[in-house]
Each structure stands twice: as C-alpha cells, then as structure tokens.
Amino acid sequence: MKALIERLKKDRLTIGSCESLTAGLFASTIAEVSGASAVLKGSIVTYWTECKVNVVHVREEIVEKYGVVSAPCAKEMAEKARLLLDVDLCVSFSGNAGPDTMEGKPAGLVYCAIADRHRCEVYEFHLTMERNALRKKLVEEMGKQVIRFLDAC
C-alpha cells in the first residue's frame, strides 16, 4: 500500500472505499502506512444489503435484478460512495467470501470497482481460498489496480 499512498500523494488525489465482504480492510490496510492521512478520507462499510441501499443509495432495482454479488452493484457502490465521501477515487468490494453460495453465486465470486469523476472500471474475481485469505488478497490486488487505473488516465 505504500506505493499506492505515494502515487496518490504525488498526484494530489484522495481515496475512499465502500466495502462489503472486506468490511473495512482496504481502508484499514491503507491506514497502517505512515502518511495515509494525506490521502485516505474515509470508508463506508456496507456489509448488509440495507446499508448499500439506505446509506450509499445503491438502487433497489440493481439489487433485485442483479444481486449484491454483481458488477452493477459494485459499480454503483464505487460511484455513489465517491460522491458521499467527496474523494477523487473510490474503490468498492462486493462478493461472496464463502464458504456457502449466496444469491446462487459461488464462494469466491467477487466484484470490485474503481470510480473517479470520469469513469468507473469493474473487476471480476473467481478465487478459491479461505475467506480471510481471499479478503486480504483482494485488498492487495485492488491496491495495485488503483495504480494501473491511474496509469491508464
């Protein structure tokens, strides 16, 4: 995460997150690094569907049609939380950490998104590992993806 923080500082950007299955782990991992307060504004943990809908304002139609384990849900989480947190970039995490199926979707199916003012990219993962290892892997991977997202601008 140190490389991510340095890049955000260099570009004078702020970041936030909207986290479901990671339950704040992305923001917490960033906060472990000295200097994080220069870039990390906050995180919204939306572990329950009601929080996604009532706090972040993910449209109920999205949840009903696609479920919370979906690309459209991850996209809305990132876009709407970016506005709520007033950050340059917002990363979202929604998926099934397991061990059971959820919404008829297998354990290890995860959707993440990165949103800025102009675009939103969604990432799909199919991981087979213990739930906490999966959560840590996603946090590490999305930290790298944010740098790639910025490089593509």
From TrEMBL:
Pfam families (UniProt xref): CinA (PF02464)
Transmembrane segments: none
Residues annotated as domain CinA C-terminal: 3-141
Source domain of life: Bacteria
Gene3D superfamilies: CinA-like
InterPro entries: CinA-like_C, CinA_C
Name of the featured protein: Competence/damage-inducible protein CinA domain
Organism: [Clostridium] innocuum 2959
